[in-house]
Design the sequence.
């Protein structure tokens, strides 16, 4: 045990001196989080609405102002042709044309009421639906106000969770999961294959140091690094994006450590199989890249096409991301996410067996 | 006669179609400098790696410091010091830290500076290991081989790739190790090196020992068989000229 601790401490010392390792394990993930966090990619429920106001009267102004005051909407005004062009470039989710005869007055019997014409962006069906609902709601409220009646049925909305999910709240757990995967797979595969190739591992195996202690130290180092990495990323997320972590940070660390173990087995398998460092990136990327997109890092897994759903649902990163996200955004406990924990455990066992089968200390 | 510190009997090792070692037997007495000579691919390194517990022999027995290598490779590793061919130290450590790191592998606390002093590297203690010259790196690997106060050290082609000054410096180091009573088994394909350093040499070719005796005996035998060099041996050679012109001082940047 003393030997393992001393060796792990030495490994950590070399690691912090290795600039490229520090860049890939800390600076790159931070950049990822800051860039995607700032991009506000996805922005679910947020609707960009173009308004073409052909009435230009006090009533139409009031209606547009009310729309502009709604948080989920970004309202832009312009001429019809211009707005339609923007719609086709996906700069608008929908365009609403307010007719020239627009006015807010009780309808006269027999006369028609003004009609709002909506142009929808087919590619953004979700946003269009949200925008339509907001319009319907505003029309209903306006109608009751103008006709001085009150609604016959009232709707109140119960807040489902204590916090409203912003994109960055969704993103940060995904970034955490992604980096657990990257650190575990790449740092093990690169470092160990390089050491194997240069004969470092052979030199160590010429001493009485037991292989199991060597491997334990290598694993311990990565688990320690992973905890440090998660705490730093989480700290920046809390400070810069004011991300709310509803669940327990300790539970998050337990989950990311479990995730690390699952992905470390992959890293060791890869390190065992590869004879040269050049063989590492293609295979490592083949394993990790699809999971970026199938495992809910940047956007939810709902958008994954049905054909890829089975892969998406059982990918190790999906289990990790789901669990971390449930704890972080919904305040779930480890027991609540036991399905994901089981998934990670199964992957760890499979990976461990593969690693035992493939890992070697010297090139043949 | 005292029991030999290294004893090898009918060792054989095959890699697929190639039979690298074909029945090698020899013994090394404690305190001896023993050389395994031979061209590249003769089976020197394979033999040494079997003795170091890094490879399994197909058949035959080998024991080092009284321990059967096949039965207890870890026990052998604990008692020997090694310098491997084509190996390297982990990166991002200073020279002193490399020695301490190997102290951890042998599970002992070491006086790294004292060891570096023995190989004349104390002034490089805080320099990164990657920045050492070839000769300095070989000296560091000897310091590391001494970490566990071994009874035997194995040096696999310790002077390959070194300039004449660094080679001579390393010879002096090997002699100082021998003077401390440590048995040295070294492989080389430089015959002058073997002649200077070794008490006895085994010449290996194609996996077999073709001669085993003190260097002078081998030379005397050859001359006794009526061998003469076609050209009269000069009293100096080009290496002597080179050293005369450039001095014995170590060149290290």
Sequence:
């Amino acid at each position: 045990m003393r030997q393992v601790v001393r060796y792990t401490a030495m490994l950590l010392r070399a690691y912090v001196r290795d600039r490229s390792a520090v860049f890939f394990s800390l600076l790159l993930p931070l950049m990822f989080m800051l860039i995607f966090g700032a991009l506000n990619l996805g922005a679910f429920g947020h609707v960009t609405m173009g308004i073409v106001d052909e009435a230009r009267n006090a009533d139409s102004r009031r209606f547009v102002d009310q729309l502009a005051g709604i948080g989920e909407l970004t309202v832009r005004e312009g001429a019809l042709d211009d707005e339609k062009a923007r719609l086709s470039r996906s700069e608008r989710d929908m365009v609403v044309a307010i007719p020239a005869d627009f006015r807010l007055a009780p309808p006269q019997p027999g006369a028609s009421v003004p009609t709002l014409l909506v142009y929808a962006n087919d590619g953004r069906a979700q946003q269009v639906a949200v925008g339509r609902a907001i319009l319907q709601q505003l029309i209903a409220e306006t109608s009751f106000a103008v006709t001085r009646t009150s609604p016959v049925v009232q709707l109140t909305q119960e807040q489902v969770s204590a916090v409203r999910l912003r994109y960055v709240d969704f993103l940060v757990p995904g970034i955490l999961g992604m980096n657990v995967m990257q650190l575990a797979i790449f740092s093990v595969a690169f470092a160990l294959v390089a050491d194997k190739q240069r004969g470092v591992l052979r030199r160590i195996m010429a001493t009485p140091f037991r292989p199991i202690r060597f491997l334990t130290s290598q694993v311990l180092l990565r688990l320690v690094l992973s905890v440090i990495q998660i705490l730093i990323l989480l700290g920046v997320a809390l400070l810069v994006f004011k991300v709310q972590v509803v669940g327990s940070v300790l539970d998050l660390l337990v989950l990311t450590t479990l995730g690390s173990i699952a992905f470390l087995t992959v890293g060791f398998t890869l390190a065992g199989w590869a004879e040269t460092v050049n063989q590492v990136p293609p295979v490592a990327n083949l394993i990790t890249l699809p999971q970026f997109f199938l495992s809910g890092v940047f956007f939810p897994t709902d958008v994954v096409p049905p054909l890829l759903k089975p892969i998406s649902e059982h990918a190790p990163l999906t289990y990790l991301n789901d669990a971390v996200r449930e704890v972080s955004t919904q305040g779930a406990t480890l027991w609540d996410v036991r399905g994901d924990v089981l998934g990670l455990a199964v992957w760890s066992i499979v990976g461990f067996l593969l690693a035992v089968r493939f890992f070697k200390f010297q090139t043949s | 006669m005292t029991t030999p510190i290294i004893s090898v009997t009918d060792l054989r090792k095959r890699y697929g179609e190639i039979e690298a070692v074909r029945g090698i037997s020899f013994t090394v007495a404690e305190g001896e400098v023993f050389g395994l000579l031979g061209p590249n691919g003769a089976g020197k390194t394979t033999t040494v790696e079997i003795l170091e517990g890094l490879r399994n022999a197909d058949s035959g027995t080998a024991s080092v410091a009284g321990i059967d290598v096949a039965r207890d490779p870890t026990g052998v590793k604990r008692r020997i010091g090694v310098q491997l061919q084509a190996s390297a130290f982990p990166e991002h450590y200073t020279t002193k830290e490399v020695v301490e790191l190997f102290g951890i592998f042998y599970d002992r606390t070491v006086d790294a500076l004292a060891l570096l002093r023995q190989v004349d590297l104390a002034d490089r203690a805080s320099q990164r290991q990657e920045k050492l010259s070839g000769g300095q790196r070989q000296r560091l690997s000897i310091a590391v081989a001494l970490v566990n106060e071994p009874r035997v050290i194995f040096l696999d082609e310790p002077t390959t790739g070194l300039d004449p000054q660094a080679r001579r410096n390393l010879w002096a180091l090997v002699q100082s190790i021998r003077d401390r009573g440590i048995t040295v088994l070294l492989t080389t394909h430089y015959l002058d090196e073997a002649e200077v350093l070794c008490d006895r040499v085994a010449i290996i070719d194609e996996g077999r020992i073709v001669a085993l005796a003190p260097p002078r005996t081998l030379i005397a035998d050859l001359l006794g068989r009526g061998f003469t060099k076609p050209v009269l041996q000069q009293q100096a050679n080009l290496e002597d000229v080179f050293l005369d012109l450039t001095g014995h001082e170590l060149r290290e940047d």
Notes: The mean pLDDT of chain B is 90. DSSP finds nine helices and ten strands in chain B. The radius of gyration of chain B is 19 Å.
